[in-house]
Amino acid sequence: MKNSQQKSLSQQNAERNGVFRYGHPKGKLKVMFLGGVGEIGKNMTVFEYGDSIVVIDAGMSFPGNDMPGVDVVIPDFSYLVQNRNKIKAVLLTHGHEDHIGAIAFLVERLGGKLDLYGTKLTLALVENKLAEHSLTDKVNLVTISDKSVVSLGDFTAEFIHVSHSVAGSVAICLRTPVGVVLHTGDFKIDYTPLGNEIMNLNRIAEVGKQGVLLLMSESTNVEKAGYTMSESVVEDTMNKVFHEAKGRRIIVATFASNVDRIGMIIHLAKLYKRKIAVSGRSMIKYIETACRVGQMSVDNDIFVDIDKINNVEDGKLLILSTGSQGEPMSALTRMASGEFNKVHIGSNDTIVISATPIPGNERDIYNVINKLYRLGAMVVYSALEAVHVSGHACQEELKLIYTLVKPKYFIPIHGEYRHLKQHAMLVEKLGHKRSNIIIPDIGDCVELDNSVFKVCGTVTSGSVMVDGLGVGDVGNIVLKDRLSLAEEGILVCSVAVNEKGRVVSSVEVASRGCFFVGDDHNDAMVDELKRLLTEEIYSALRNGKNVPAVKSAIQRTARSYFRSKYKRNPVVLPLVLEV
């Protein structure tokens, strides 16, 4: 028994140093990208060797303007479904939606028990999501911490603490039979972080000295020179805001996931003897979750129900709110629009938006700021004061990680194509061979060992749209119809015919988003369209046409009329009722 234990420990130490047991079948490591490259969000990478698959992250992204009605977008899991029996685990780098937002959909699709590895806060956030889908019994949640090492089939994974804008973030050192892969996750190098330990650069340097075959490094902020500012800068600015807002009510909107920043704001409220009201379901949920796992410690007496804030003087109240991105239904947006009956904005309010607009959200958040100013509030946001810093590494930090690791191969991840290209150019300037860099597309399968590094093919991939309870049932044709409806409106033309093919009702025309009925000009237009449709319907029936042919005639006539007379192209829905 003692010898067996010693052998097991020896083997673990060997694996930690990148040495694998003798007799292991030769092969190549495959890395497949199901998301997170060529796009922002939807991060998901698959590692496969022999009969073992390990997945890093399963994130979602938000729909673009060309996806009306879609709630979220997730990766295509087809490859994982086809290889379900090979999957050893899903490893999670941190708890942001673009890294864990698709977990519930993945668990539901794969079926059976799935092992999920992550830090305490990350797994607590995942557990919340799984509970909403009644899937908590379908997973094994395995809590890890800095320097944790786990064996997963042909892989050994080590977790290394990094700084980011959510607590409990890690990089993953994946030891494989062909060599070591270091996946940075999202990170920044912050020497004065709030509440977190400093990023474990020592361990990353040690891994680099042992030899790294492949570095996969995030690229979100690669276009920015220098270093990302420390989170402590935000604390200094917020302290100044609190000091200058004596006698005024303070409202702070920030990312609910940034629990360290929220903890800092709560600490300042206590320091300045302010009660705290929390507005927004996600904000409440994150605070409760962070407290439950020990990531945040708060005195419950400091909180006041949002319904009772009128009993608290303005100068003794802080409201923590969602809506830092101008989301339509968020608390801050509703306050700015006068639609939040619990909070009425006025001239005695100092409102801090502790975030920068995510690309695509600029117009929404600036509209909110404009409305807040119109209501008389003082607004503090990132263009004016350092009330927000990024959680992503800038160029000098990316250079430092690369220099510490000195990999043989390099793949930039987590960014649009321009970010990945800039990151590739950055490491080239540090002396990395261009032939040892691959900029992947979604679906690419990269094959590598010590002598081979190439894209060997593709796997099924893409974007799966979630709309309500429907997953994947909305495709390009449906989106095209929705865009047409949004841009041109819909025209419904109906008529009734009997079994002998005779018209037994007048033609009726109804419209939504096409023209306004009741205007004299439009009423005349409807009458003219009805006349043209009636003539076309009678002509089709006289020529012995069937119901489908009559529908086509209605559609063709209505489209032609609007196109020629008004340069419009509404969606035409013909209804022929057989009575």
TrEMBL record:
One of its GO terms (cellular component) is cytoplasm. The active site is at 218 (proton donor), 392 (proton acceptor). GO terms for molecular function: 5'-3' RNA exonuclease activity; RNA binding; RNA endonuclease activity; zinc ion binding. SMART domains: Lactamase_B. InterPro entries: Metallo-B-lactamas, RibonucZ/Hydroxyglut_hydro, RMMBL, RNase_J, RNase_J_2, RNase_J_b_CASP, RNase_J_bac, RNase_J_C. Zn(2+) 2 binds at residue 164. The keyword Mitochondrion does not apply. Pfam families: Lactamase_B, RMMBL, RNase_J_b_CASP, RNase_J_C. Keywords: Calcium, Cytoplasm, Endonuclease, Exonuclease, Hydrolase, Metal-binding, Nuclease, RNA-binding, rRNA processing, Zinc. It is an enzyme of class 3 (hydrolase). Its EC number is 3.1.-.-. The keyword Ribonucleoprotein does not apply. It comes from the Bacteria. Binds 1 Ca(2+) cation per subunit. Seen in 1 crystal structure, it is not clear if it is physiologically important. Its cofactor is Ca(2+); Zn(2+). Zn(2+) 1 binds at residues 94, 96, 98-99, 186, 414. Ca(2+) binds at residues 69, 71, 467. Substrate binds at residues 256-258, 388-392. It is found in: Cytoplasm. One of its GO terms (biological process) is rRNA processing. Homodimer, may be a subunit of the RNA degradosome. HAMAP family: RNase_J_bact (MF_01491). An RNase that has 5'-3' exonuclease and possibly endonuclease activity. Involved in maturation of rRNA and in some organisms also mRNA maturation and/or decay. Belongs to the metallo-beta-lactamase superfamily. RNA-metabolizing metallo-beta-lactamase-like family. Bacterial RNase J subfamily. This is Ribonuclease J. The lineage of its organism: Bacteria, Pseudomonadati, Myxococcota, Myxococcia, Myxococcales.
